[in-house]
Amino acid sequence: MFDCAIIGAGLAGLVAARHLVDRGLSVVVLEARGRVGGRVENKILNDGSYVELGGQWIGPGYDSLQEIIDELGFETIGLPASGNLVVRLRGKSLEVPSSEELPALTPFEVSDLGQGLLRLRRLSQRLRDDAAWRKANEAWLNQDLRRWVTSNLRTQGAQRRFGEVYAAAFGPMPKDATLLEGLLQVTSGIDLETMLASNGGLHQKRVEGGVAAVADAMAERLGDVVRLESEVTRVDHDDTSARLTLAGGEVVEARQVISTLPPRLAVALEHNPPLPQWRIEAADKVAPGNVIKAFLVYKEPFWRDKGFSGQSSADEGAVRVTFDTTADTSEHGHLMGFFEGADADSLARRSVTLRERAFVDAVVRAFGEDGAKPIGYVERDWGAERFTGGCHGAHFAPGVWTANGPLLAQDEGVLHWAGAEYASRFNGYLEGAVRSGREAATRVTRSLA
Ligand SMILES: Cc1cc2nc3c(=O)[nH]c(=O)nc-3n(C[C@H](O)[C@H](O)[C@H](O)COP(=O)(O)OP(=O)(O)OC[C@H]3O[C@@H](n4cnc5c(N)ncnc54)[C@H](O)[C@@H]3O)c2cc1C
């Protein structure tokens, strides 16, 4: 019997295993896929360079992941190019200089922005600490973030700067986010002031070789602790141990279990005794997002010569955010974009050619006609991945976070939960996965003591 069985060899599972093995415990990691990494994965291109199909950006506050990156001897690389960010609003392009060159705000605008941020910080604290207030103000918390910004920041300069940085850091424009989402982003990551001071917010650095290479290196160190092609289908548990049944019928016994599956996949496994109803209902409302991450490969990164950073965001079109992700080892230029939400839902049913064309159109709108002739297109539809069930991370439906969010991470006897969606900080992100894996390992060690 193992001291601990871990379901899933994504970052959370690998980190948990690493900590438990370091403490001298016997561990097995059961991974359904034929590879480790889960939502981080590299695709090697014909020229030998790679693109990262899943999570790739790391930013301020990613201390736990950075520790692993350093320990394993990986380097990080910054945003590839300086140059202007393109923001497209109502059919018009606005070029925003990268943050070092952002136009200075007037003292009045700075103070306005400061007041607004202070108010946001107070609200996010209240959201975290006062459950009764959260419930009573649910409808108000679900107003669109732009409405809150325009009624709480008085100057247009401050409102604009807030919108630009929020979109660059988190993806959606304030009009496409709710106040609640904004507050969760602010509380779950580094404070917004740091974001405002950073070039690109969370999207600051990536790992040379890709985050998937970090996962591979962790798995290599763990050796035969990690078992691939080992899908867990059933969990029987009592007060002292658990028996995990694999798809082929094999049974693995362990004194403790860490499940690192996203909530919906986790509760879909057969559990005996059954999981509490509230957990099943909450998991059902933690809908996985739907994202197709796509890359256009160009003969060279033409946008750089034109003074663009390759970063763009738009309020229309199927691809609304782009980044330059050209690998240092690549002979060519890579632009990354996302099909998200409803666009991903409808375009996932159409042809690859159509999606490629939609992406090309977005690049042409942002960076001009040179974008019309890519030499390659790569994509990964995460919604179609059976062992992920949607991405980036899960979206908490209104009321679910306020009612049950933090509870989701609570242990059920010998069953522990880890993974990006269970993290109290950096929820949904790489850093959240790492932290939650480490914290689950600590709880397991305590339970075994
Ligand atoms: C397109 C995309 C872009 C992203 N970009 C970023 C980014 O730039 N920065 C950032 O911080 N985050 C990003 N994220 C989020 C980040 O990748 C995830 O939060 C993180 O990788 C999740 O790790 P995890 O270990 O919690 O879960 P997972 O990686 O999902 O790991 C769960 C593992 O469980 C396995 N599994 C599933 N079912 C079973 C079963 N029945 N039996 C056994 N094993 C099973 C899966 O195969 C998987 O390996 C992105 C995600 C996506 C998809």
TrEMBL record:
InterPro entries: Amino_oxidase (IPR002937), FAD/NAD-bd_sf (IPR036188), Flavin_amine_oxidase (IPR001613), Flavin_MAO (IPR050703). Residues 11-444 form the Amine oxidase domain. It is an enzyme of class 1 (oxidoreductase). Its EC number is 1.-.-.-. The keyword Oxidoreductase applies. It comes from the Bacteria. PANTHER family: AMINE OXIDASE, AMINE OXIDASE [FLAVIN-CONTAINING] B. This is NAD(P)/FAD-dependent oxidoreductase.
